[in-house]
Amino acid sequence: MNNTTVLIIEDEVDILELLEYTLQKEGFETIGFLNASDKVYEVLNEEEIDLILMDRNLPGIEGTSFINDIKNKGYNIPVIYVSAKDQDEDILEGFDKHADDYITKPFNLKELIARVKAVIKRTKKDIEIEKIKDVTYKRSSKSFFINESKIDLTTLEHDLFLEFFKNKDILLSREYLLDTVWEDSLEKKLKTVNVAVKRLKSKIDPKGDKKYIKSVRGEGYMFC
Prior knowledge:
23% strand
């Protein structure tokens, strides 16, 4: 499994070391964390992650909540929960919370490796890029490219463009964009959307000839 990287978040040191050792023996690259800290987001932004092995009982946060958060931020990385929560309702909840597979503790190492390989094989083709016309989005690095040239966007501009990208040919009102992109920001004013969209358009279409984002007077905006 050359160039395949597994991110492991597991708060028990012995289990984390065992998982890393076992996966590395099978040829995987591994990155391990004992908690879901901000450093995990740094790795998600800087590295191409093929799979997340996620414990559910973590200091300060439930693993499914963390996964839900990164999914909402646009990281489309497959997830296997490795958890001591082994009741039927726990497993069903895991699959409802973005699990591609669910492994209960204690686990058999050979079975775990087999299931890791199966999930990666099944999802590999879907996780790397999405493309609409000449716009490509690389989810693992949260980067947009136009004709293979990376577009330098702020976090807000990225989130705004991603919302358009996910809703191609759908009219999005300014109110919807405020609630979805700005969330709890103090800058929740309709004119804030207008300014942000104008800045985004200047970056992705500086000559104004491609018209990726169409303004619909009195209604909102549409990516088409």
